[in-house]
Model the fold of this input.
Amino acid sequence: MSYANILLEENNGIATITINRPKKLNALNKETINELHDAFKEADLDKNIKVIIVTGSGKKAFVAGADISEFAHFNVDEGTKLAARGQELLFNFVENLSTPAIAAINGFALGGGLELAMACHFRVASDNAKMGLPEVSLGVIPGYGGTQRLSQLVGKGRAMELIMTAGMVDANSALSSGLVNHVTAPEELLPFCEKIAGKITRNSSVAIGAAIKAVNANFKDGVNGFDIEIQEFGNCFGSEDFTEGTNAFLEKRKANFPGK
Ligand code: COA
Done:
């Protein structure tokens, strides 16, 4: 599939999605959200792809937020639909992919940009990155899951402060609060993410998909995460990956997972 606002490349089982509107600091307009949905879906369905990395083009921004020019005139109904549709198409969609998604935060990750990074399974930032949810400075609140995921990642008090002040945190502060897992020099960001991705590609993609479901279950209302873990654990025993992984261990060789 070809895209107007994003680039999708594949290398060694790793798909890299680059949001490519650098003149608008990669702001998420409707078309880009639709394209991101399609690209994540395309990568997730491709059995050769084991990890997805998402980043922004240019040196300045990962994503500087939802495209403000598109919603500045919206009414209550339109605003509600904007959040609901975005959450379904992109943010919840990414969180629930069975293929791991890593956000490589290469600059400003603000509003919808930070929300996209937080919907990914984990985050790595370059040391020039700045992160925040500045929505209250525009008279609105984060609507793409930011109020929920930021609290889950950094705790309620830190989330409240960042949201209320509409401030930004730098990469090292994001590291110490658990918002990102690692900080690198800008030129090391993608190679570092690819290195982690390479480690993931060696493991069972069936088991990794099951682990994502079980971990996510901890954050879903009305779902017992321990029950989901039991179910997903049991399901793994029916996979070819499980047979290969356990046989390889017992035969003292490296596993070659079929991914089913
Ligand atoms: N929506 C739409 N356009 C955006 C945007 C957004 N979220 N963020 C940046 N842009 C556009 C700017 O309007 C500008 O376009 P122009 O050249 O056509 O005027 C271009 O991207 C460059 O941004 P600019 O503001 O000139 O860069 P800067 O270096 O001075 O400031 C930021 C960088 C990130 C601090 C600033 O762009 C900003 O505050 N953006 C909005 C952040 C935000 O509130 N996000 C949450 C949205 S819900």
